[in-house]
From TrEMBL:
SUPFAM superfamilies: Actin-like ATPase domain. PANTHER family: N-ACETYL-D-GLUCOSAMINE KINASE (PTHR43190:SF3). Residues 13-305 form the ATPase BadF/BadG/BcrA/BcrD type domain. This is ATPase BadF/BadG/BcrA/BcrD type domain-containing protein. The lineage of its organism: Bacteria, Pseudomonadati, Gemmatimonadota, Gemmatimonadia, Gemmatimonadales.
Amino acid sequence: MSAGPLDPTPLVVGVDGGGSRTRVLLADASGKVLARIEGPASALQPGQESLAADVIKSLIGEALTTAERTETRPAVCVVGVAGAGQERAAQALWSALAQRRIADDVSVQADATIAMDDAFGDSAGVLLIAGTGSVAYSKGPDGRTERCGGWGPNIGDEGSAHWLGRRALSVITAAHDGREPETALTGAILTALELESLDDIIPWAAKATPSAYALLAPVVAQVAATGDLRANALISFCVEELALHVRTLARRCFTDERAAIPVAFAGGLLARGSLVRKRLEQRLKSAVPGATIRSEEVDAARGAVRRARRLLGVEV
C-alpha cells in the first residue's frame, strides 16, 4: 500500500476495542466517515497483544475494502482499547500494530481516553463506561484527570456486565441450596446457557471468559423487569456500584457531588433505554445532585477519529 501522507486525501482510522466487540471507523481528513466495521473483541489480555493486533488489522483491511481504498495506507490510526491504561500493555500493542504497518502513525490509548474525546472534547466532565468491564474517568475544570475503577475482571469491574452475570450465578446456586429464596433467574440462565441442570454450571464457569459472563447481564435485566426480587436486587446493587464511581470522581474533580457536573455514559450496559441506565439516572439525582446527564450517545470510535485528525494536524 502507498503511504498515507503521499495521498492527496489522507485517511485516518479510529478503533474502539472492547471486551465484546471492536468498532472501526475509516474517515478522510475532513472527518467524513468512509466505512464503519464491527468485529470480534480486542480488549487486551496479558501476553495476547498480538491477537488483538491481528483483529484490529483485519478490521481495518475490511474498512479499506469497503471504502475501495485498499491501495492506501492510512496516515494516522488511533486505537483505544480496554486494558491499554497499563503502560506495558499499551506499548506491547503499539509494537505489534507497528509491525503490521496498519498506518504511517499509530497511537494507542485507553478506551476511556477516546470516549472522553467524543463526550467532552476539551471540556470538563465525568465519563462512566459499563460494558463487559467498568471504569470511570473525569476531567476537572482545572484540566486535571482522574480514574476510578477499571481494575479488571478478577479484582474489580464492579457494576459491569461481567460482574452482574457472575453474581447472578452466585444467586441461583444459593437459591438451589436454600440459602436464598427461589428466583426466576435459575430457569432463565439455564435456558440462555443451554444447560440441563445447575450441576452443569461448574464446568461452564471454569471455562467462561469475562465476555461470556457479560452475556448474562441482559438475562438479569429481563428477569428483573418481570418483578423478580433477586434479579431486581442485583440490578440495584449494580446501580449503586456505578453511582459510587461517579460520586467519587465528582468529589475529586468538582469539589463535591452538588457542583454542576456534566456526566456521560458509554458501554453496552448503559445503552439508551436499558434498565440499568434508567435506574442509574434516577439514582444519580440523589447520589450526585449536580449531575447533568448527556443525552447523546458516546461513540468512542468517533472520538478516536477526532484524535487522529488532530494528530494529522487538522483543527477539530
